[in-house]
């Protein structure tokens, strides 16, 4: 039976005088992968940070598991939400297994248990990273570090995963592999759900149950990939000429972008997506 993991209502946020989000609603249920899509500066990363409590909204509410995020302590937040940022700015001087074990901190009282170590090891195995377990995190490539941070988040065992472009530094083969594993985690654990910021429309169409399309600080459309990823919506939000069809072999939605009508605005330094 599905339960509501997240309910965000009328979220508003501005960077100084510039409004970023204006009345955004979002709900996520267990067993569900929700993709956040939109142009640069649409507010995707800002929204994800508010859902994790890293940013406080100027208005609106965020409920996680039915409780207000605003009133939760840090440990309780970490038990309920696990966040993976878009980029990894720190290079931990520690072994990979120890980085993943940091994800167990909300559950540790006096010391790490055998179960904590097993969960960290199993998570590395799930992501195909077992061979890196005793390697120094600083010796890994950007894409490998990104996967280790994802493993840390999965080891946290939070019910709600908040992932900001978790495959941005990976090649196409590894992108698909990571998305399959995230999908598997959500499918295998009926209590878990995920909100994922994405840029690749076809990846979103393949792996998301629902798509939230942000445009100019508001939700332009929300629904299944077929309902949201229409030629009309994509032309309006991304300013591109594209064709959307269904593959005859597997029935998957396919988006073919023909040309870009208008270039994306420059990053303002606040919105990392």
Structure notes:
The protein is α/β, with parallel strands linked by helices and 273 residues long. It has a domain at 4-87 and 158-260: P-loop containing nucleotide triphosphate hydrolases (Rossmann fold), CATH 3.40.50.300. It contains 9 helices and 12 strands. The strands form 3 sheets. It has a 6-stranded mixed beta sheet with strand order 6-7-8-3-9-10, sandwiched between helices. A hairpin with a 2-residue loop joins strand 4 and strand 5. Helix 4 (114-126) crosses helix 5 (142-155). The chain is globular.
Summarize the structure.
By secondary structure, this protein is an alpha/beta fold.
What are the SSEs and their pairings?
Layout: E1 4-15, E2 18-29, E3 33-37, H1 44-51, E4 59-64, E5 67-68, H2 74-80, E6 81-84, H3 96-101, H4 114-126, H5 142-155, E7 160-164, H6 172-188, E8 193-197, H7 201-207, E9 210-215, E10 218-223, H8 225-228, H9 231-238, E11 240-246, E12 253-260
Parallel strand pairs: 3-8, 3-9, 6-7, 7-8
Antiparallel strand pairs: 1-2, 1-4, 4-5, 9-10, 11-12
Helix pairs in contact: 4-5
